[in-house]
Design a protein that fits this description.
Layout (H helix, E strand, L loop, with lengths): L5 E6 L4 E6 L5 H6 L1 H16 L1 H24 L11 H13 L18
Antiparallel strand pairs: 1-2
Helix pairs in contact: 2-3, 3-4
Length: about 120
């Protein structure tokens, strides 16, 4: 017995939607599986409009280019990779603070209030 099905997924790091099927792509097959595309497209839209998702995605892309830049410079990648630049360190801190790791936030001893 052969099952004709499609499977989809959305890659948040590269803003791509992949739909895989063993069927030949015809207008009928595309119409039959349009709910998979719509489902994955909703993930894409969430990635574009929700602040945590877009920042997470762009951070991953920036980290990838940091690794690529380092690899071009030294002509190799040494694992584990540890050649993070200052921008990558800042992105890492933003990530932990955004997702609620309160332990990484410096202690605040005073808050100054000014009137506008």
């Amino acid at each position: 017995m052969k099952l004709d099905y499609a499977m989809g997924f959305y890659n948040i790091s590269f803003f791509t939607i992949n739909i895989e099927t063993e069927e030949e792509l015809t207008p009928d097959v595309l119409k039959k599986n349009e709910e998979i595309f719509i489902h994955e497209f909703i993930h894409y839209l969430q990635d574009l409009v929700l602040p945590y998702n877009i920042r997470y995605s762009l951070r991953n892309v920036r980290w990838f280019f940091n690794i690529l830049e380092s690899a071009h410079k030294i002509r190799s990648i040494i694992r584990p990779f540890s050649e993070w630049n200052n921008e990558s360190s800042i992105l890492w801190t933003q990530f932990f603070r955004s997702f609620g790791d309160g332990g990484s936030i410096d202690f605040v001893s005073q808050i100054f209030v000014t009137s506008i």
